[in-house]
Amino acid sequence: MEQCESVEREVDKVLQKFLTYGQHCEQSLEELLHYVGQLRAELASAALQGTPLSATLSLVMSQCCRKIKDTVQKLASDHKDIHSSVSRVGKAIDRNFDSEVCGVVSDAVWDSREKQQQILQMAIVEHLYQQGMLSVAEELCQESTLNVDLDFKQPFLELNRILEALHKHDLGPALEWAISHRQRLLELNSSLEFKLHRLYFIHLLAGGPDKQLEALSYARHFQPFARLHQREIQVMMGSLVYLRLGLEKSPYCHLLDTSHWAEICETFTRDACSLLGLSVESPLSVSFASGCVALPVLMNIKAVIEQRQCTGVWSHKDELPTSDSNPPIKLICGHVISRDALNKLINGGKLKCPYCPMEQNPADGKRIIF
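RE: above sequence
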């Protein structure tokens, strides 16, 4: 975590410099454009009058050219100074992180380079589709010659279309989708359809007394949900009493909270992904987060194995050096190592855990069976 914070501090410095430079650049160019605009007006006026260029105006033109040159040189120099800050970010990354993460496992673990590239590209494309960056995903598919079936893209296209509508406070597409998938949503014990109807009812309430009759008429949609959501329906119907006085100043003002829109987006994403067999979280994001947690531990294991001169333990295609003949052993401190590693680490009848300073009897280790 300290390493991440160290790099983050350098990134923050660069971002601050970019912000300051951008503001200074914009101000300088605006002043320059204003100055040039005034000079252009004076030259146009002199041309209309048919008078020759005066010595004063000629001097002003020379000064303007010099000012333009000086301003451009100053901006270029300031921009060049930012390069050193950007370079420090790279140095901070190199200083705080081990770049040789591929050495954690044998090369035999991975498939061919072409297969690796295809898997990575597919993971990135799926991530882009899931994040709604459809045009970027399509561009990557074209440039990488990756063939993605329409059947694979269709669920993401539909989800993003509905989410885009929800972000614009348009409940129509989401309600249509929920109604068409009502039975399957009920099987998942989902309350998505009710929440969509509730939010539409609240949307009508926000329209004031003019929408009261429409809200009462729409309330019939709550009938199928009366058994499970009786209390919430009672609250919404009770809010009609304060409609003419203004809900924002009533005990029901919480109904107008804008957080309901963010909540419905999360509910729709979770339930729709569950129904369609998709992961709510991007597989690429999950893999990245898992790697951030697992890699430091694996690299520590690798360093200990190399230090103890038992590199032969980790030379197979398994991710971890465990198998039926070399099972994982849980130490009394709670850490787990392989049996071969345990035997190699024994010194004078005692075993020191590679992860903590606890010394223990090797015979106290217990085999773990998955």
